[in-house]
Design a protein that fits this description.
The chain is mainly alpha-helical. It has five helices and two strands.
Length: 110
Amino acid sequence: YLVARKRLSRGRLCVIDATNVRAAYRHGYVELAREFQCHAIAVVFTLDIQTCLERTSARSDRIISLDTVRKQHEELIASLKDLPKEGFDATYFLKSPNDVVGAGIVRIPR
């Protein structure tokens, strides 16, 4: 939150790259955006579990238990029903590897 707060206070783009699979984890970031009159945009990776497991297994930079990935995936899917009520200004779902590859961010200056 400290780094995000500093970036937002300077009018800088702030991207939170985290496995925020529960609403409670996401809430503070929405509030932080509101504090600085910024848009809170959710980009949600809803890839199928098999793709997640394959990509995790192929990682060489860190080891993550496949059980952890399964649990996070289940928690994310369960939390999606309430996502529209969380206060995000827009939500984008990346549902396939092609969606991920083709995604980009364009910032429109105020």
